[in-house]
Design a protein that fits this description.
286 residues, 2 domains, Lysozyme, 9 helices, 58% helix, mainly alpha
Amino acid sequence: MPASGKFFAPARTFATDVVNGFLAITHNGFALLGLTVAFMAITLFARPDLRDAGENRLRGWLAERHVAELGMPVEPAASERATAINPKDLPKEQAAVAYWLSKKYRVAPEPLAALVSEAYELGKSNKLDPTLILAVMAIESSFNPFAQSAVGAQGLMQVMTTVHTEKYENFGGRNAAFDPVSNLRVGVKVLKDCIARAGSVEGGLRYYVGAANLPSDGGYASKVLAEHQRLRLAVGLGTAPVMTAKAAAPSASPAPLAAPEPEATVKPEPATTAQIEQVAMRESTL
């Protein structure tokens, strides 16, 4: 054998052994990795609690990385909490109402569309004109869901939360007064009761503002009814007959404990000093 052959033969043998050894280690390593993955898969399948914990930790880690990159908290489902819908998805009449109110009160049409849709649903179920409900909201809060008057009336419909606390129990408590839909539902319930008690829309509005027992409501009922007519005319609905409804004149006779039938007339009690002050304070916020 030539000298060069004697020199390269051991080198080839050594290289072959190294390659074979590497392949054997790699093969065994992949086999071990496969066994590990299979074992983990079986374990996670048998222990859902471990799988859930792992997923939660992974999601948490990814969220932390995302927050670190953006510099702010991230809530992908935050839009689901928003009281907003596309006005184009509403029926033609409701969309027209939403756009008109949006323009007049400088409020985004999407949240107004959600309120208009809810007002129409509540109006149907409570046998109230939905545009009257919207007119009350307009005069009370100008569609500000966080509004609060000097006497403590809160939210879109300016409901006296301390007086109607029990009505918010089904919505999680008094803080629901600042949830637009919850406040709207409670306010409509109060408005319906007031109208039933007074026997007329105008009289019901006097009860709603807390002026049923006072010589004057400061023009509150007239403001609401006028806005009601403007809204209906603006969207082509025509005038509503509620403008002819008259409230009962103040009287010294005590008000009944139970609500009368709609056609009955309730004679309010004389005004107290506290009531006069309350209405005066409310007038200053209108």
